Amino acid sequence: MCIERCSLVKELPEFKSKIDELILTDEEFARLSEDYHALEQQIVACKKSNGPMCEAKLKELKSRCFTLKDRLYMRLKHGT
């Protein structure tokens, strides 16, 4: 089981088998999945630090994560 897929499966459980397949067979999907996981880790770290610049950074990270999740979803749904 790939660690980077865990958060994606949590968000899109209906695509679990497709996520597993694409991570193993599609290099770009695997890279995007890793990027998504890394962004989620940054969001968690930012929430924990709660520093003065964190609110703006958190907003930017969440926006990037949403965009990336949308790209992954489109690839899962439509194969593009």
From TrEMBL:
InterPro entries: DUF465 (IPR007420), DUF465_sf (IPR038444). Pfam families: DUF465. This is DUF465 domain-containing protein. It comes from Pseudoalteromonas luteoviolacea. The lineage of its organism: Bacteria, Pseudomonadati, Pseudomonadota, Gammaproteobacteria, Alteromonadales.
